[in-house]
Design a protein that fits this description.
Strand order of the largest sheet: 1-3-6
Strand content: 25-35%
CATH class of the largest domain: Alpha Beta
Shape: elongated
Radius of gyration: 18 Å
CATH topology of the largest domain: ADP-ribosylation fold
Helix content: 25-40%
Order of helices and strands: EHEHEHEEHEH
Structural class: alpha+beta
């Protein structure tokens, strides 16, 4: 069964670290992993919610779950007919991941007004915007200033 999950940049990084095979464990304040059953609804969440807070980026992941396993989950309508989800309790995320058919794919990206790209925490590019990272990289290569427009 085809499913979607809107995610922010931090969760997307963890998905990539899994080799695009799994969703990360829930944080203590996240009792469920909600999975969306409609791509347009997932895009709306990504666009309207994930882009409001730093780092102002939202992504829509698409993936398949084994049909027999997917059919076990109760569907929840959380708005109009298009707003359908399943809720995986935090303690069952590992089991859910075992039934995901890799890879998890990124099918859409949305960026808010304050988006500045990935800003690393450490090493040479720490705290620098994407434009600042490119300028520094060019200087390191001996190319001089780059036009970042």
């Amino acid at each position: 069964m085809l499913m979607w999950r809107p995610v922010g940049m931090a969760e997307l990084r963890l998905i990539y670290e899994s080799g695009l095979t799994a969703f990360p464990p829930r944080l203590p304040e996240q009792p469920i992993l909600y999975i969306v059953l409609n791509r347009e609804y997932a895009a709306r969440i990504s666009r309207e919610w994930n882009t409001r807070e730093k780092p102002f980026a939202g992504y829509v992941t698409e993936f398949e779950v084994e049909d027999d396993y997917a059919s076990r989950w109760e569907r929840h309508l959380v708005g109009d007919r298009a707003c359908e989800e399943i809720w995986v309790p935090a303690e069952q995320v590992s089991e859910f991941n075992r039934h995901v058919v890799p890879p998890i794919r990124v099918v859409a990206a949305h960026f808010g007004e304050g988006f500045q790209g990935f800003i690393p925490d450490g090493l040479l590019f720490a705290g620098r915007t994407v434009d600042e990272q490119l300028l520094l990289f060019a200087q390191l290569l001996g190319e001089g200033p780059m036009d970042s427009s």
